[in-house]
């Protein structure tokens, strides 16, 4: 059963007054650190999503170069695995198909919610999952290089990337998890990878959080810690904006 969202932050206090920017930022940072994500609700029309996110770091362009991108169903793309169609996605972290450090944070905010069923962004904290790995398994995922490929949908637009790196990477005092349920290439006979995919798939199914959108709602998560995905939907008008925030340069 999906969990109820447990990291929701309202832009208004109990009396309906807008929170001062400093209070909102304080509560946002605390929830993001504690839970790995924040779902911002009751967002006023005056809220500047881009300005709020800019304070978190440099924006990192997506594979097609968009800095502030649009997520809406694209014509002729329903038959492939692709972020910009109506179909569900599979659990992943962003940027696994690149050699460099993946974006540290991802943000989606809602221009037009999907009417009717579906369209939720789903999330799962990887910490309980990683804590169940044995020391040997953890070491194996830090040191065994795997091949990763970009999606079928991007390939249709001429974007085809592959990268080679382990599932886990230590970086600037953090452990980065890279994951893709369908684009991690499992070598023949690699039981550890087969079990990881089975375990993550099952845990995602049982324990993910589903975020539903009202207009202007925003969800921000730590992409080094959280897996994310999307439920299928029907409404062609569903429209989200997307920003990726790069890691600070390690000093
Ligand atoms: Fe994604």
TrEMBL record:
GO annotation, biological process: antibiotic biosynthetic process
Swiss-Prot/TrEMBL keywords: Antibiotic biosynthesis, Iron, Oxidoreductase
Source organism superkingdom: Bacteria
Source organism (scientific name): Streptomyces hundungensis
Keyword Iron set for record: yes
One MF annotation (Gene Ontology) recorded for this entry: oxidoreductase activity
Required cofactor(s): Fe(2+)
Keyword Oxidoreductase: yes
InterPro entries in the cross-refs: AlphaKG_dependent_hydroxylases, TauD-like_sf, TauD/TfdA-like
Name this protein carries in UniProt: TauD/TfdA-like domain-containing protein
Segments forming domain TauD/TfdA-like: 25-243
